[in-house]
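Hi support team,

I'm opening this ticket because the web form for multi-chain structure prediction keeps timing out on my end. I have pasted the exact lines I submitted so you can reproduce it. The total is 709 residues across two entries, so I didn't expect it to be a heavy job. Is there a limit I'm missing, or should I split the entries? Thanks in advance, R.K.
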Amino acid sequence: MTAVIQAALNGAMMGAMYGLTALGLTLIFGVMKVVNFAHGSLLMVGMFSAYWLIRLTGIHPYLALVIVPPVLFVFGYYLQDVVIKPVFKAEGQVREPLTVIIVTTGVWYVLDNLALMLFGAEYRTVRTAISNKSFALGEFIISIPKFSGFVVAVATAVGLALFMRKTKTGKALRATSLDREAANLMGINQYRIYNIAFGLGTAIAGIAGCVLIPFYYVYPSVGVVFDIRAFIIVVLGGLGSIPGALLGGLVIGLIESVFSQFMASTWTEAIIYAIFLIILFVKPSGFFGHKQDW
Amino acid sequence: MKNGSITTILAGCMGMALSAALFAAPALAADKTVKIGNVEPLSGPSASVGVQGKQAREMAIEEINAAGGIKSLGGAKLELVYADSKSDPTVGVTETERLINTEKVNLMTGCWNSAVTYPATQVAERYGIPFVVPVAVRDTITERGFKNVFRIAAKDSWWVRDQFRFLKDMQEETGVKLQKIAFVFENGDWGTGFAEKWRELAKKDGYEVVLDEPYPSTATDLTPVVTKLKAAKPDIVMLVSNAADAILLTNTMAEMQVKPKVVLASGGGHADPKFLENTDTNALGIFDEVEWNTDVNKPAAKPANEKFKKKYGYDLTGESVDAYVAMYVIADALERAASTEPAKIRDALAATNLTTGPGMVVSYDGVQFDETGQNKNAGIVIVQVANVDGKPDRVTVWPKAARRAGYVPAFPANK
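Hello R.K., no limit was hit. The queue was backed up. Here is the completed structure from your submission:
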């Protein structure tokens, strides 16, 4: 029983971080109706940014949390503005712009290979003040980097939800996500909103990078590992739904951790995909998704 | 016209005779070479290992030639003819055919990848060309009743055999008795192959298996595996991991305070240069099985490694050591064969008993082939990660004859 509770605690912490990686993906999809295949690469950029910042300056990993995300916001903002927008405009009348998806795939390859050229294929970790530190909760051991990651993930999701509800920009994002033509007519600059959405998604990937780097290693194609999970989580939680991403992440994390206490851990992978398929059959819109009618 | 052509032919013949008289004799004496065909992965996924092997061979050839070549052949020089396999079995086969038929090599060596070596040795066997395999560990390469295939390195099943020998020896040496054993391995060909043999030997040696856990090496989180390990409370944990998961497992075990008495890895990820860099003190005490280590207690090892490092900028690896030794085994056989006749080289190779000379940098005592062509003495070393000059480093601990002078292994590592 102890092992199961311990596994559940780990699963919840890891799951929240999976949710965090999915958050940016779901936000960009919600607003732009684009499946961003470059999301994993943006996470990789976030991890490398955090890695180099901590490695070179020796600052506390959580100080990186106030530096890396704003930088990545600017990066994402201009990535959308310069690379994706022109393609989007060319397909302006199409509801689900397919070429844009292909462009994001191109961005994925370019970023991964740039990282490969610059940093090589090896695995890198930074040893920080909190690496491999843990505290005891009764008889259970809680990893400090993972627990902090959990807190940051929940805070980011709550913060993002509040931002979407309370601020003018947030409302504009939501309006665009509901109906971009109508939003346009109401005086919202659609492409500026896209820039912001993409920037926010990238910034969240930066947050994820900062909380992952104290215990996980980074290498140029690290994004792929998280990407697959992020896609499953986004579908599980409902496309475009913020609480859905968090809950989806928790579900995946718990399955992965708890189920593997009863069977070989190679099986949990299969179970996750099976659940993904079942959800697609039973409730294609996910836990919190709306029926898509755009 | 007719006359003219006859004259030309005559002149040509005379010229050939003249040049033969003038140049052939000295050419035989000094410039005679023994051609050795070498198929290696010089591009593609395993290129780095292929290049390491190539450089080690070149160093050995330079030394052998500088020392006067093959004396029984009038000081004949060794010449390597390289072919790139790209790690592709098909390419390996066609290149072996080409080296034998077009390049007319006297013998063959290579090919590092088991998958390439397996069919390439088959081609050489058909032509009756001797094939010296430095390192391709699949058991079956020397288990097909071939007469011309000789392997220097230990085969797959010996790796596991030596892991259990090590455990037994260390328990006898220290008087500590260990009982419960856990297997944790990546679920690929390599890991599952090891696990199969582990189970057999663990049963034979009377261990109690408390965990038998495959895991996907692409896993983002290995905490579930470590949680299981914590609950199983093993004395010994045996591991097969690639680089990324070896790092993650080691760090997660430190974080979750899982400290088995003995952690024994199987090379691969744990032997990766990046492993210690990313785990640092968390890796202290871990035992790892490797083909070779820079500190093996052998007189020839240190100078060879220093020379190699000066030449190419990095330490010799297990693979390159085997390639290096192979060149000396070939030179030794040629010396005794006193012929470039493949059949005679083959017989000389079969009678090899090399125990001394600059080639003996290996951890074991000598090269001697059994009737299948496998080096009987081939062995593996076990290293322990220990604090050396304030930095975690690998120290050879087993076999005892190769142990770093003055080092007392920490066994069990965690009491």
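A quick check on our side: Chain B touches chain A through 30 residues (CB under 8 Å). Let us know if the file doesn't open in your viewer.
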